[in-house]
Structures are given as C-alpha cells and as structure tokens.
Design a protein that fits this description.
- The chain is mainly α and 71 residues long.
- It has a domain at 36-71.
- It has helices spanning 2-20, 50-70, and strands at residues 43-44, 47-48.
- Strands 1-2 form a two-stranded antiparallel sheet.
- The N and C termini lie far apart (58 Å).
Length: 71
C-alpha cells in the first residue's frame, strides 16, 4: 500500500514539474483586464462619482443593444 502512495506522489510531482515548464501544453493568453480607473472615473470620498458610472453603464447598455440587434 505504501508503494502505491509513493508512486502516486511521484506521478503528481512529475505532472506539476511538466506543467511548470510548459510540456503539457501552453495556457491561453490571459484577457486584458479593464480596471475601473481606466474607464476614467473620478475618485471621490465614497468611491467613484455616480453620475460618471451611470453614464458609462448607459453607454455600455447601448453598445450591447446594438450588438444584440446585429446577431
């Protein structure tokens, strides 16, 4: 029974080693994360200005509606 645990441990360590050097395939590129500060919101005491956030959400809703009508 101890031999089975040792073999499983060796297999796990080998898989981790192979994955860390990229032998098990490449990972896809990570998507670019768009942070709220990149949207251009002004920071105020309690977070972001609500009117700016509301305008951005309305703009995104309009883009989404146009995109959905196209499909």
């Amino acid at each position: 029974m101890m031999l089975v645990f040792v073999l499983v441990a060796i297999a796990v360590i080998a898989c981790i080693a192979l994955a860390s050097v990229g032998r098990l395939g490449e990972l896809p590129e990570a998507p670019v994360d768009r942070k709220p500060t990149e949207a251009g919101f002004d920071v105020v005491i309690r977070g972001y200005r609500m009117d700016e956030v509301d305008e951005e959400l309305a703009r995104l809703r309009a883009r989404l509606a146009v995109h959905e009508k196209g499909n």
